[in-house]
Model the fold of this input.
Amino acid sequence: MTQPFRFELLGERNGIRRGRYHTPHGSFETPCFAPVGTRAAMKGLTPDQLRATGAELILANAYHLFLRPGHELIARRGGLHRFMAWDGPILTDSGGYQIFSLAHLSKVDDDGVTFSSVIDGSTKRLTPELALEVQRALGPDIAMILDECPPGNADPAVVRRAHLRTLQWARRARDLHDSWGGASRGQAVFGIVQGGPDPELRAESADAMVALDFDGYAIGGLSVGETKAQMEIALEVAADRLPADRPRYLMGVGTPEDFQTAVRRGVDFFDCVTPTRHGRNNQAFTREGILKLRNLKHAEDDAPLDAACGCVTCRLYSRAYLRHLAIAGEMLGGVLLSIHNIHYFQDVMRELRAEAEG
Amino acid sequence: MTQPFRFELLGERNGIRRGRYHTPHGSFETPCFAPVGTRAAMKGLTPDQLRATGAELILANAYHLFLRPGHELIARRGGLHRFMAWDGPILTDSGGYQIFSLAHLSKVDDDGVTFSSVIDGSTKRLTPELALEVQRALGPDIAMILDECPPGNADPAVVRRAHLRTLQWARRARDLHDSWGGASRGQAVFGIVQGGPDPELRAESADAMVALDFDGYAIGGLSVGETKAQMEIALEVAADRLPADRPRYLMGVGTPEDFQTAVRRGVDFFDCVTPTRHGRNNQAFTREGILKLRNLKHAEDDAPLDAACGCVTCRLYSRAYLRHLAIAGEMLGGVLLSIHNIHYFQDVMRELRAEAEG
Done:
């Protein structure tokens, strides 16, 4: 059987890895940004609109889909690609982050985690095995192991315990995935480096994950309230220890500034809700900084959001129109700003890729 | 100066008028349905998505745009076509219907109407002249006169007074429009036949409007709580009295059944919020009737909304996916159902046009 996953490292320059990741649903160029369609929908955007931004890889969330409509229902529909009509690469997050960011509602033990459903408060349980089974049913190209994500300000002892537990869970996930035939069956599984702000723990976590020989590696635990210094530590360790021939994924990050830093430390891809969330909140990322479209100063501004942007929003509409939509609460505003923001994030990545090509 | 507006009657069959209306922003085939973008936005749909449904004429509302962001602001942006990036024909309603459907907040006198803004409660006033000036600033292809719309259950005396007042306002609108050079300056103005449920009053109103020689004629006062019998009366009178060489527009109607009736009585076009409003409420028009997507029975249904529909929603998605979006409250659901519903309404019109072509 041919190996359906392959990371091609096309070149390297200024620390930027210019790559291409091959998956059963086509390849994507790296470094890149994956927009987030948590519940198998990219907010108000259709697949065509998303593709037009340049997005090639998208993310959905196994935790949310496990709760509703259920992974088995989606499996019976032929899987996530068909269900949401996205024929390109899809990655699903396991849900670890979501479960632990609702920490007061979850109870972790060595075997797994018990939590209250965000939908109806009912008690649910995920184990490292079930998290993979859910993702196997959903059928994304890339699945993530279940990890324990302590908060950014957690006690060193808590961070250490979470790292050790994540590692045990990673072994169990690895074993289960191997028992299915591994990535050759059409789904890659990525390990997640934890370890919080402690460089030694990060190194220990990275080495142990690498020893498990995952198809790729995520750098986790950086999404909530982490300082830039913590990100630097995590990136430093990753750059030194993760194997060059596997993709590196920085989870839940972030902003164009973060991308500049992380890509130059060898990160290959990112996901974040920022562009769509900011879009729905009437905020646009531009080369001039973030524009708040509700501001009066845009009321009569005939300029596009960003004169250097080629997205449909910037080609067709003025800031004045977008402000009108924001003030009137028209849903088209959220759609157009989300399109622009995703396109803008892709532009950042296009420029980084071009830089790596020299 | 060439006349920029021309109604070509291409044929007639089973009472259906197969026509083509030429405007400064291109022609549209009739009979047709105009989707409603009240505040210069078609809810969550982009112009491309709208065009793909087959829509050629769209409607915006002068009353809403007068209040916010203001017609002068839109005029300074180059007008409505440019502002909302729709380069096809646009019609604006004058706002009569909106003002009078908030009747407890409005006070009508012979000169005009004073009302509270729906946005901030401030006192506003529209006259027949200002309604046309607002629309001249907005720059749609077709403007409507200001009319007084009594409720469907109003006293005969109230209906008669509203008809006479609308007629006086129509004369003032006609005079002002003539003083600007009439439709040759790029904007057609349509009269509105009122008269409520009384056939004699309807006839009197139609004759008087026709005597004023408008560019086209709307049949008004049928949007709120009218019975089918009242619609029949209004259509009968219109069919007998409106000139064959001018387009006929049934305002604020309605459903595919209404179209079947009215088109066979010679109505050329319609507008209604139904397809987008139903779409946002998770209801789809289909050849099987209206589907309520929240219903459990759609949870595992792999069929498209309507097997005979060629819209993007039906080409790409199952009822199961659309139900998931409805239950999860994802905005993509409203977008996809609005696209389908508008496409479905266009299909009804395409079929009626084909029938007229024999």
